[in-house]
Amino acid sequence: VLARLAELLGPAKVSFASAERIAYSQDRFPLSLLWTRAGEVPYAPDAVCWPERIDDVRAVLALAAREGFPVVPYGGGSGVCGGTVPVRGGVVLDLKRMNRLLAVRDEALLCEVEAGALGQHLEEALNRRGYTSGHFPSSMYCSTVGGWLAARSAGQASTRYGKIEDLCAGLEIVLPGGEVAILKPVPRSAAGPDWRQLLIGSEGTLGVVTRAWLRIAPLPEARRFLSFRFPSVPSGLQAIRKVLRRGLRPAVVRLYDPLDTLVGVSGGLKGGGVLEAAKVELIERAKLEVLAHPEWAAIAGRFSSGCHSVFVCEGDRELSALEARAIEDAALAAGAEPRGEAPAEHWFRHRYDISYKGAPLFREGAFVDTMEVAAPWDRIETLYERVRAALAARAFTLAHFSHAYLDGCSIYFTFAALCPSERETRERYLECWRAGMEATLDAGGTISHHHGIGLLKADFMRREIGPFLDVFCALKRAIDPRGVLNPGKMGLP
Ligand SMILES: Cc1cc2nc3c(=O)[nH]c(=O)nc-3n(C[C@H](O)[C@H](O)[C@H](O)COP(=O)(O)OP(=O)(O)OC[C@H]3O[C@@H](n4cnc5c(N)ncnc54)[C@H](O)[C@@H]3O)c2cc1C
To answer: Residue 344 in contact with residue 225, Cβ under 8 Å?
Structure first.
């Protein structure tokens, strides 16, 4: 079968080399980083393919359906839930050679792009033509359009532009067996259920996305930066709600809890070059001590003075000025202290650095991960308290609120721990996830706002969607009777 694959695609598009098979055995799922640290490769594909056009994708899927081998679609491999881990071997299909921006339609404000385009490349190409995608995940440099759609990604400015499911007007998808389905771009439609929305978020289990039509926006004319220190989490949330209820849509809204505020301030000093190398080293050592003793976090939290926040408004010059004034009014009314533009500008300049700081902790034997949950406004504080309590008992835990909408918002927990042995580290890691997911579901929240399900959250899908998991299984059987597409993910059999 593998020889047939090489014949079909040609040698430049297929590899059976062990280096590549190992490289594609994992994504940015922290558990898989623990495997790497221990020198383990529990799963590996039998081959890696790099299709260059839709016919290559069709050929691989047709062969897979005939012969019954698994195919795992792969974009940037930046997923953090193990979505691309080839748990049953087979072929990893890396879409990154299908990366062209095919068209920009000014009147419709749409772009047509191949699924393997990297976020940053797409944004740069759009900027050159005077537009923006409005989609800025922190993984901008290493994630693709197909991966965004597959995992229901959110950019940092989703409050203004929406998540990827709001930005997607149409898509082209290759179904198992090789059939191509095009869901053409339309503004809205009443022609039955919205199949786009069913396929977005299916994480490569129902088809391979090869092309998408995304909504775009003119490059913003102006940008405003604001930051405040709120006395507490509830006062900050109240101000954010007030702004949104006035019909305003700032691009970025971020409120940090007291501990994240405290840690962020020392990080900010470091970034500003205020501390020399020896002091930085000292802070790094202190961090490791704290990770080994999560209970110290409660004491550290007492030294924090309130909640830092960052707002960015962008778009039309007059409207963004108006929006900035309304934010200031709401913040002051909630008792916040203005901190000027500089902290928000600093965040903006470093908005893609922040997520790459985990590696040193893994090197030191610790783990760090993030849990992005969401709930309606009337459940948000309960969600915060319950998940924080569940995680803080097991790991050093920070949180910020972002991706705010009229009806609710997301909470992004960062948690890290250092245990005496590798075995205990893994147990603690899985325990954090179990406790955090249960707490989220108990509080009425969703187990994922934008990272998806993959392997990591598969066991919680039954509680998240109830009988619709059976409907999802039936749909999977109908579309993919031999179960070749990304098997073992999302709670599907
Ligand atoms: C440092 C860092 C920061 C991050 N920040 C954010 C953030 O701000 N917002 C956010 O939403 N996420 C973020 N993520 C998570 C990740 O970037 C997203 O989940 C992203 O959508 C994954 O895209 P990818 O191209 O890397 O997909 P991959 O990791 O390659 O794949 C993800 C899933 O999609 C499937 N898939 C990939 N391509 C296709 C395709 N063409 N057709 C069908 N299925 C496909 C895969 O099989 C897998 O199940 C971050 C990750 C990292 C490491």
So the answer is: yes
Q: Decide: 114 in ligand 1 pocket, CB within 6 A.
A: no
Contact 401, 309 (CB under 8 A): no
Those residues whose C-beta lies under 8 Å from the C-beta of residue 392, and which sit 6 or more positions away, are: 294, 297, 298
- For residue 156, give the ligand 1 atom closest to its CA: 8
Mutate to test the pocket of ligand 1, among 139, 372, 486 (most ligand atoms within 8 A of CB): 139
Q: Do 70 and 2 contact (CB within 8 A), yes or no?
A: no
pTM assigned to the model: 0.95
Q: Which of 386, 385, 401, 424 is nearest to 291 (CA)?
A: 424
Residue that is written with structure tokens 């604001």 in the block: 226
For the CA of 450, the closest atom of ligand 1 is 11
Does residue 113's CB lie within 6 angstroms of at least one atom of ligand 1? Answer: no
Mean pLDDT across the stretch 17-33? 96
Q: How far apart are CA 68 and CA 70, in angstroms?
A: 7
Tens of pLDDT, residues 384-438: 999 999 999 999 999 999 999 999 999 999 999 999 999 999 999 999 999 999 9
